Amino acid sequence: MIALIDGNNFYVSCERVFNPKLRNKPVVVLSNNDGAIVSRSNEAKALGIKMGQAFFEIKDLIKKHDIQYFSSNYELYGDMSARLMKCLEAFSPDVEVYSIDEAFMDLSHIPKQKLNEMGWKIKNTVYQNTGIQCGVGISFTKSLSKIANKIAKKSLKANGVLALYEQKHIEEALKRTEVKDIWGIGYQYSKKLNEFGVFFANQFIELDEFFLRKHFTIQGLNMARELKGVPCIELQLFSEPKKSITVSRSFGNSVKNREDIFGALANHIVIACKKLRQEQLEAQYFTVYLSTSYHKGDFYSESINIRLPYYSCYTPDYLKFAKLALIKIFKENKEYKKCGIVLFDLKQRSFLPSNLFDFREIQKESMITSVVDKINDLNGMFTINFADSFDKKAWIAKRGFVSKKFSTNINELIEIK
């Protein structure tokens, strides 16, 4: 048996944990540069606000219904996600973190008649320990647990927890599930299925396997088998080593000055190199790129690949070569909107071959990065930095309504008066 645990309206829920006044009120969270809606409370959904809707389109609704809105606070959401996943590990040794707010869990050790009780125990424990409301769906396969989770959230009777293990209940669930809501079936697949007269999951599983493989590949065939209770998608308990690390952001405003762009690029390099060190990785190749806005005339985009003399996770190495790369691809009199860095050819630090001509003071570099990371972890990112001082106002993304980093920055702890 597999359970899917999913945080309800996760970003909004994280904001509500530290601001109880937001409960039972319409709340939305915005994307990068405060451009669009990426999370909505149930009250906001009831007002007709759509996922991905442009922020400026709901200005009248905000005034009329006193909608609360926040910029994305990824530091807070990431930390709350880690706490949620930590709670789940107490219930099973086999937990697959699927996304920031979703995880699959093996519950094969629980008798079927106690699955619903276990689901409620998981839900209540997560809420008690984190303040996050979640839905719990349990069934024989990942695809069925997805359906159970979706019904659990919508059904007043289920109230957030549903275990599907009796065949008659599974059949009823499949009758209620539209093909567009089947896990792994996107817009194009659902449109194609509708053209064949297939609108619900129970009709989908009746399709001939040869037909499914022909029109929807092996992936479609596995989906149908999963919905019949045959496991085809295993739990991914060990994450594969990363093949690349990308860090990029659109600028809050267009930027013309090369030094300002390097300030943004340096910011991305600091983040990328810290990710390398956290995962005990080093890279030898990286790409620097920048571009103007797609929506304006005279569009310009360029990139350049750089090979370091050795594998490294030491931030100054990348800063030095990235500055030279930027000089080569930068053009004057352009209004740039985005830049970024991609690290690739990643290798585990412990498996790197020795280099006879590597004259770096590796132990000293390691001590420096260790101290910098510890200080930044305690006091917030960029408390201490490798890069020169740059004016972030020129390029920093718009986050005009961001809440505090309540759980990750000691200077922004919640105050009780």
Q: Helix amount, in percent?
A: 25-40%
Quaternary structure classification: single chain
The overall pLDDT, averaged over residues, is 90
Which radius of gyration do the C-alpha atoms yield? 25 Å
Uncertain ranges: none
The shape, in one word, is: globular
The largest sheet is: 5 strands, mixed
Strand content: 15-25%
Tell me the strand order in the biggest sheet: 5-6-1-7-8
What is the helix/strand order?
A: EHEEHHEHEEHEHEHHHHEHEEHEH
Alpha-beta content class: alpha+beta
Instruction: Tally the beta strands.
Output: 12
Number of helices: 13
Mind explaining what this structure looks like?
The protein is 38% helix and 21% strand. The protein is of the alpha+beta class and 417 residues long. The strands form 3 sheets. A 5-stranded mixed beta sheet has the order 5-6-1-7-8. Strands 9-12-10-11 form a 4-stranded antiparallel beta sheet, covered by helices on one side. The protein has a 3-stranded mixed beta sheet with strand order 3-2-4. Helix 4 (74-88) packs antiparallel against helix 5 (115-130) and helix 11 (258-278) packs antiparallel against helix 12. It is globular and about 65 Å long. The two termini are 47 Å apart.
Can you lay out the helices and strands and say which pair or pack?
Blueprint (H helix, E strand, L loop, with lengths): L1 E6 L2 H8 L9 E4 L6 E4 L1 H5 L12 H7 L2 E4 L2 H15 L6 E5 L2 E5 L8 H16 L3 E6 L2 H13 L6 E3 L3 H10 L10 H9 L5 H4 L4 H19 L16 E12 L2 H21 L2 E12 L8 E12 L2 H15 L6 E13 L13 H18 L38
Parallel strand pairs: 2-4, 7-8
Antiparallel strand pairs: 1-6, 1-7, 2-3, 5-6, 9-12, 10-11, 10-12
Helix pairs in contact: 4-5, 11-12
